[in-house]
Predict the structure.
Amino acid sequence: MKLLSIAVPCYNSQDYMEKCIHSLLPGGEEVEILIVDDGSKDHTAEIADRLAAEHPTIIRAIHQENGGHGEAVNTGIANATGLYFKVVDSDDWVGEEAYQEILNTLRQHQEEADQLDLVISNYIYDKQGAVRKKVMQFRKSFPKNQVFGWEETRRLPAGKYLLMHTLIYRRQLLLDCGLHLPAHTFYVDNLFAYEPLPYVKKMYYVDVDFYHYFIGREDQSVHESVMIRRIEQQLKVNRRMIEAYGEHDYSDKHLKKYMISYANIITTVSSIMLIRSGTEDALEKKKQLWQYIKETNPSLYRAFRCSLTGFIINLPGSVGRFIAVIVYKITQKIYGFN
């Protein structure tokens, strides 16, 4: 069994996928790299096959009909053999020194009685054209270099939460919790970073800047104009998160607070994108989203409405929407997201 499986979903990734894969190769024989070609129409499949032929004991090329990012992650989980599992998108990459520290941590916890459910590390917003890169670290929220549970965590500040880039799961946990991401849907990385968390008991935070999250291409799914065009998919993910929250009883208040906070953040993003769209139809969809939350989980709805973001996002009239957008832009500058 490999120590770590890394799935690299690829769709028309010929221009940047090799940089990603080459950053993963220093993991050596302990790592398997699963290049999942999601029905690409360019030379992605050929590059994947060549890399697999050059590194046959490390890289596997998997080809499938186009199913979207979520289906590519599903395929990665289904084909992985490693003890631990991570997703690295094909336009991102990892830092070599941090990579070795991550592997050392996994190596120290590979015995059955000592296995971790989740390993967390930092990520960098590698924004195109930015001189200073924003590092998202969690030193004030998680104990460093020790095994801990939810009861030992401290609150994550607004705007900072565990994205897919920060997470390495124990692979069997993903199988046991039945995680299956929807096909042909963007923004499913939020489900990957959310739905398994109630099953996580043993965590470990490695305070290294491991993952470089590239931002800057106009066709990226997180680009604001693209998000507005794909708002139905954002809303689909948002609703599924609301449903997922309600499927569990939360014995630990720290986990419960985090699950509420993350779902609230995604609801805020959905609401802002609908406001930014500026159409009557979009504003009606925002109203419907909040009504859906109220009907599906009244206690969660009250928690959202009592939060600062919930208050701001629901300020009435055009002036209220203007204030909400201003606050969003300020937050965007502070945290560096797109």
